Amino acid sequence: MHMRLHSNSNIGEAKDVVMAPRLSGRFISLSMVVMAYHQSTTRVARETTTFSVMDMLGPSLWDVWNSMGQAMSSHMVACIAVESISILEKLHSKGFVHGDVKPENFLLGQPGSPDEKKLFLIDLGLASKWKKASSSQHVEYDQRPDIFRGTIRYASVHAHLGRTGSRRDDLESLAYTLIFLIRGRLPWQGFQGDNKSFLVCKKKMATSADVLSCFCPPPFKHFLEMVTNMKFDEEPNYAKLISLFDSLIEVPASRPIRIDGALKVGQKRGRMVVNLEEEEQPKKKVRLGSPATQWISVYNARRPMKQRYHYNVADSRLHQHIEKGNEDGLYISCVASSANFWALIMDAGTGFGSQVYELSQIFLHKDWIMEQWEKNFYITAIAGATNGSSLVVMSKGTPYTQQSYKVSESFPYKWINKKWKEGFHVTSMGTAGNRWGVVMSRNAGYSDQVVELDFLYPSEGLHRRWESGYRITSSAGTPDQAAFILSIPKRKPLDETQETLRTSAFPSNHVKEKWAKNLYIASICYGRTAC
Q1: What pLDDT, on the 0 to 100 scale, is given for residue 62?
Q2: Is residue 337 packed enough to be buried (19+ CB in 10 Å), middle (13-18) or exposed (0-12)?
Q3: What DSSP designation does 413 have?
């Protein structure tokens, strides 16, 4: 058996090597610990060094793809598909996800050996647990947009967005790998710069399964659709995924890749015949949809109160609506913009004592804001228009003791995370074109806060946050992304009911229905969703 030794010590040379017997395993090459003893002429004491020992394998799928003129037949890739799925099933059954599935990490056995057509998955450097060792329960969902793990070209969209890794991510990366091996290129290759990951993720979200798999046989499209619509904690039906490729698998003698593992999956679980035209109940799509830009309104349960809304308000009409509302005892609770027109929500439940606002051609006019801070006004609502102008509302009567804000060309999660550690919480957000404005305040009344950021409406993430006790407290959207801040209040309301609504037009036809159920607009924005 061929071995390669790697030492983590520079002390002398290995004199005696004690090897454990070979461990069988399909999903990784052999890894074991070897104790090597070193002896020098000046020291009598023995020193211990740890070695990592791995099987000497053959070329990677990347190497094979290159040697074949950067194109593989669909029959060969189908064999790779079913065997890769079986390898991932075995890894997943141990409670781990790989985290970096790509052609370079699939290797064949040594040429000329009995394993030369056998597929191996290597490199567990980015592997993580999807299952808790103590309880065997799925790890909890989270999103940290500043964390990316994987290879940009093949990473799942969820990995780009910083979501906790789960089994679906390995399978999505496998789908991109398979399509790459057939097509020789993926639509998001070629992006450069510091925002490369953002641009690639945006392109992945915008590329339909039809377009991505247009040069591939139908099973590859079906596989892509199935794995990109899996839920975070969903257990993949590996046998069903393998069976998608039945029509492309040739007789054993002509198979370029051994599919022993895939056959075992079939024997163990009983292969089902998949008729994609007769699926018993179509699943609700988790991610794939037609991109759209819509109004996103958030409603909270409140005691009956007076609330008023205005939309499609031109700059020249703002003062009239605000002055009339103030005369009726109403203050602005949230603002938004669409097509350079404004939307105002005014109600009697803000608790504010007085309020000022500024309509500026600058997105968040610093001098004016600082002037109002000196007068003990605090920012309570912001919005920006596509032409770069902004509407900033500042109020007295808030619990805030200090504020900070940031304007950024990308969503400023790192800054938000830094401010969280300093005792601030997000209290307002707005956008102007693709620019983000985020306001954070001390003494906001929250015990914890999280972010949901996506290139489409993050339905699954919001529902998981709701289940964990969080409620949306701020929202904003650009033509590319939608962001939601969810918080846990220190004082929980008696009724924690919260609903969201997405509409192409301002939701004037729905607001009165919500009011009848004592649900009032708490946040509204215009941005990226899917329909």
Answers
A1: 98
A2: buried
A3: H
- Among 499, 254, 476, 258, smallest CA distance to 383 is for 476
**Residue 284's pLDDT band (cuts 50, 70, 90):** low
Tokens 């056998």, residue located: 118
Higher-scoring residue by pLDDT: 530, 82: 82
Q: Residue 94 in contact with residue 104, Cβ under 8 Å?
A: no
**Residue 259 near residue 180, CB atoms below 8 Å:** no
Average pLDDT over residues 77-93: 98
pLDDT bin (cut points 50, 70, 90) of residue 42 is: very low
Please give the pLDDT value at position 33.
36
Q: Which burial class, exposed, middle or buried, applies to 504 when counting CB atoms under 10 A from its CB (0-12, 13-18, 19+)?
A: exposed
CB 481 within 8 A of CB 160: no
Strand intervals (E) in 124-196: 128-129
pLDDT single digits (tens) 227-246:
999 999 999 999 999 999 99
- Does position 53 have pLDDT exceeding 90, yes or no? no
Residues 6+ apart with CB under 8 A from 23: 30, 32
Considering only CA atoms, which of 388, 484, 395, 370 is closest in space to residue 431? 388
Report angle CA 146, 148, 149 to the nearest 5 degrees: 155
Q: How far apart are CA 109 and CA 318, in angstroms?
A: 71
SS3 (DSSP) at 263: helix
Instruction: Annotate 459-526 with DSSP letters as a single string.
Output: HHHHHHHHHTT-EEEEEEE-SS-EEEEEEEESS--S---EEEEEESS-SHHHHHHHHHTTEEEEEEEE
Residue with tokens 């109600």: 347
Confidence of residue 64 (pLDDT cuts 50, 70, 90): very high
- Position 45 pLDDT exceeds 60: no
What CA–CA distance (Å, rounded) separates 120 from 259?
11
Contact 411, 436 (CB under 8 A): yes
Mean pLDDT for the chain overall: 89
User: What's the token pair of residue 387?
Assistant: 């032409």
Catalytic residues: 100
Q: Are 426 and 449 in contact (CB under 8 A)?
A: yes
Q: Which residue is associated with the tokens 């794939």? A: 288
- Distance of CA 291 to CAs 208, 422, 527, Å? 10, 37, 11
Q: Decide if 58 contacts 109 (C-beta within 8 A).
A: yes
